[in-house]
Amino acid sequence: MFAYSWADSDYEIEQAETVMWEDAACRDGSGSLTDLFFSDDVSDIQLAKAICSTCALVRPCLEGALARREPAGVWGGQLFADGQVIAFKRKRGRPPKVAPAIAENLHSDNKGQSQHCLELVQRERKTA
Prior knowledge:
The chain has helices at about 10-20, 35, 40-55, 60-70, 100-105, 110-125; strands at about 70-75, 80, 85. By secondary structure, the protein is mainly alpha-helical. The protein folds into two domains: about 10-85, no CATH class; about 95-128. A three-stranded antiparallel beta sheet has the order 1-2-3. About 10% of the residues are buried.
């Protein structure tokens, strides 16, 4: 499945010959999992990582992706972006303007505290 023609060492070429990529958990023969492993959706990424966690080829897959500096996708159970492993994918769009703790207090049962938080948010918006 993967060609190591750009290998920097004999180890990578030797590894490509000994690894049986047909046994990879992500390889279903039809390519139907491709969208899952290259998705921007956080739940798809988590599912792809879960599939990788069941695979015996996690280590060679990850090592190969690092050697190739894969530009995107889930490889060896890790998420890649611009050739680097990243911890998590941020949701699309702008982050909320209201801090999560303040927003949570706005919905609490304590009316006085909610009113105080609302006033803080309104003051913050006036100064911005």
